[in-house]
Design brief:
heterodimer, A: 577 residues, alpha/beta, Rossmann fold, 6-stranded parallel beta sheet, 16% strand, B: 176 residues, alpha+beta, Alpha-Beta Plaits, 2 domains, 4-stranded antiparallel beta sheet, 9 strands, elongated
């Protein structure tokens, strides 16, 4: 590799030892503190698996039932812990099966290292058995990738991979290692990567921009914060809370920002975006200052950009310079790590409370409560709603659980109604919207944080996209609580068909199998409920069961998620019905 | 800043790495931006490569593209310049029938006047090389077309900026 890396500090193996490339891979993983990895064996990665056998007391390999499951598990592991998740697969189909998870990690800034086996270097380009150009395929969806064809390149490639995956704005990295490089013996020595000369992970904080931001915040009469995952990725929850409280600013979150300050915090005004809360969406177009922190103005957040917060000045706290002015023009950009930036900002802020401005949020919340929330949480109709299941989970877990969701209606409902007391508790596929993410991600989350209650909430559609991972749960005895909210529809698509396609329900109705029988096939205790009076007891039984548990809740078939900003509409045109 | 499209010359200093061309071209492809020309070469700094890419787009968009390019781990720095801010050249080669040199007197004049040069002559064909601005090359191409061109190829633009590009300073900062 030609890239120059810094090698001033050396805190690892100094003495060399003659070992194979495959053993070196394991030693690199151990040096990076990896104790668990998710994967699936196959021809081109077998030398590494042979070493995993040798090192099984030091590093735990989790055999998922599909390589996609391995990536989502690694993501779940990374999202709850902040550590780098690791997935491993063979060449060809093994490698291509990783792509969905890699793309998901890229758009949701999740630190992940993927290791793929590759055919022997003399076969590259010959259309050999299970040869695929995974470096080419993964290029647009990785933060960095490389192919290694010599054992001697392995330590530097691995060190760079971990450094790049976790530094700055995190992301997925892929290393493709030919089989001959895995077999080849060489003199192994490992040095952790301390820097790459062409790569500036964290821009240097410019104090003048912080002062400019503080000046705007202190002068604002109707300021509003929208924060994203950057707060928790930067481990800046405490600094963020201090800023919010001192400046007294109503603060809304993007889907990936959830939980950086608790749901119950009085200045937490809910979620923005397509299915976000009414008040923060409407008032985005009334605030005089919009302060974006660690978020990227995704189209699901902004709605129509031409009418998004046009009346407001915009401050953008961001680690990635490419995000500045990408979608929304900023008046002040504060480039840097969230923790450092907010620490610098705090002493410059004046203490404020903005009571009249807060009242506006409360007034609009009251409208949303009457029109939507009341009916979701306290339905008078017979059918169970998804929201009342979330309410019951909130009550019984006291808001301490990590909620891992899939994609669709249940996801929006879970994010809207779940109580998050702790940061890194909302694990969901935000940017890519990957159905099938939830169940395997919950496995990774539970293994990274075994002391926490991890509840996987899926719809009947997404659940069946990676249902095979029940096998992983069974084999690993992973104590994941699995809730399927079954409406016998691909609910979100059906909702759009109802609202925008004259109720022509093309291929959205599902004939489902006996989910309880399937769970029991994997020796996972399971129950299905259809009635409201059974909900409390069923959730209690789930929570009180040691180990994995499956609960199917049959909910009303044609329930809709509101509020909703139709595609192309303005945030202020958010619909309540 | 303008939303009007114009030609921009993008200069990218990079680590010399397999796959980086793919990574950079994907940034343009994904946004449906046509690359007018692309050249890769060594740069003034040992071990650092330089991409020169010409695109037709608005300043709003080229700024975003530069951000996406600089985000790539192995890109050291990227710049964009308008036509006025650079000195640039392209190069082209024509392969013509040798008989033309004797049958068509005009050809000799065209070569002389266009500051092109004859690289080689043999019994069957001769080769003309011309470096210059795109318009000059297009003019020469038009003039020679009348006589029948056996082969023609034109290089991508290469350019240096009038302003300084402080790559060496940036790299030194890294070495400390």
């Amino acid at each position: 590799m030609d890239t120059k890396t810094i090698k001033k500090e050396t805190n690892t193996t100094q003495t060399t030892e003659r070992i194979s490339g495959s053993e070196a891979i394991i030693k690199c993983l151990l040096a990076e503190g990896v104790d668990i990895l998710y994967g699936y064996p196959g021809g081109a990665i077998m030398p590494v698996y042979d070493q995993l056998y040798k090192y099984q007391d030091k590093i735990h390999h989790v055999l998922t039932r599909h390589e996609q499951g391995a990536t989502h598990s690694a993501q779940g592991y990374a999202r709850i812990s902040g550590k780098v998740g690791v997935a491993i697969a063979t060449s060809g189909p093994g490698a291509t099966n990783l792509i969905t998870g890699i793309a998901d990690a890229q758009i949701d800034s999740t630190p992940m290292v993927c290791i793929t086996g590759q055919v022997a270097s003399h076969l590259l380009g010959s259309d050999a058995f299970q040869e695929t150009d995974i470096v080419g395929i993964s290029t647009p969806v990785t933060k960095w990738n490389c192919q290694v064809t010599k054992a001697s390149q392995i330590p530097e490639a691995m060190a760079k991979a971990f450094y790049i995956a976790k530094s700055g704005r995190p992301g997925p990295v892929l290393i493709d290692i030919t089989k001959d490089a895995q077999f080849e013996e060489f003199d192994f020595k490992y040095e952790k990567c301390k820097g790459v000369r062409s790569y500036i992970p964290i821009p240097k904080l410019d104090q003048t921009s912080v002062k400019a931001a503080a000046k705007l915040i202190n002068a604002a009469k109707k300021p509003m914060i929208v924060w994203g995952q950057g707060v928790s990725l930067g481990q800046a929850e405490a600094e963020f809370k201090a800023v919010v409280e001192k400046a007294g600013i109503p603060s809304a979150w993007t889907i990936l920002g959830a939980g950086a300050i608790p749901t119950s915090h009085p200045l937490n005004i809910g979620m923005v975006g397509m299915h976000g809360n009414y008040a923060p969406n409407v008032l985005t177009n009334q605030c005089d200052l919009l302060i974006a922190i660690g978020m990227r103005f995704d189209d699901r957040v902004t709605g129509n950009l031409a009418t998004y917060a046009k009346q407001a000045k915009v401050i953008h706290f961001e680690i990635d310079p490419a995000e500045i002015d990408k979608n929304v023009k900023t008046d002040v950009a504060v480039l840097g790590d969230a923790k450092e930036s907010l620490t610098a900002l705090l002493p410059l802020l004046e203490e404020k409370t903005h009571p009249e401005w807060h009242q506006k949020f409360k007034d609009l919340y009251a409208i949303e409560y009457e029109k939507v929330i009341k009916h979701d949480l306290h339905p008078t109709k017979e059918g169970l709603t998804m929201a009342e299941v979330l309410k019951e989970i909130n009550i019984q877990t006291k808001g301490d659980a990590a909620i891992v969701t899939d994609v669709g209606q249940h996801q929006m409902i879970a994010c809207r109604y779940a109580n998050f007391n702790k940061t890194r508790s909302n694990i969901t596929s935000g940017g890519l919207g990957t159905m099938g993410f939830g169940l395997p991600a919950a496995i990774g989350a539970k293994m990274a944080a075994p002391e926490r209650e991890v509840i996987s909430i899926s719809g009947d559609g997404g659940y069946q996209m990676t249902i095979q991972e029940l096998g992983t749960i069974f084999q690993q005895k992973a104590g994941v609580k699995i809730v399927v909210l079954n409406n016998e529809f691909l609910g979100m698509v059906r909702q759009w068909q109802q609202l925008f396609f004259d109720k022509r329900y093309a291929s959205t109705e599902m004939t489902n199998p006996d989910f309880v029988a399937i769970a029991k096939g994997y020796s996972i205790p399971a129950e299905k409920i259809t009635k409201r009076e059974d909900l409390k007891g069923a959730v209690a039984k789930m929570i009180n069961t040691d180990g994995p548990y499956f609960l199917e809740v049959c909910v009303e078939k044609e329930g809709n998620v509101f509020p909703m900003i139709p595609t192309g509409a303005s945030v202020s045109e958010v619909r309540l019905e | 800043m303008s939303a009007e499209k114009q030609l921009y010359t993008v200069s990218i200093y990079t680590e010399n790495n397999i796959g980086l061309l793919n990574r950079i071209s994907a940034i343009f492809q994904r946004r449906h931006i046509n690359i007018e020309s692309l050249n890769t070469s060594p740069s003034e700094i040992d071990g650092v490569s330089r991409f020169t890419i010409v695109v037709n787009m608005s300043e709003d968009n080229i700024k975003k593209i530069i951000g996406q390019i600089e985000k790539q781990v192995e890109v050291i720095k990227a710049y964009y310049h308008t036509e006025d801010e650079i000195i640039y050249q392209e190069s082209c080669i024509f392969k013509m029938r040798s008989g033309l040199l004797f049958d068509e007197r005009q050809i000799q004049n065209i070569i002389k006047e266009s500051n092109a040069r004859i690289v080689t002559v043999n019994r069957d064909f001769f080769v003309i090389e011309k470096s210059g601005r795109k318009e000059e090359i297009e003019l020469l191409h038009r003039e020679l077309s009348a006589f029948g061109i056996m082969q023609f190829t034109r290089s991508g633009r290469i350019a240096v900026s009038k302003e300084e590009m402080k790559i060496s300073t940036m790299l030194q900062a890294f070495q400390h």
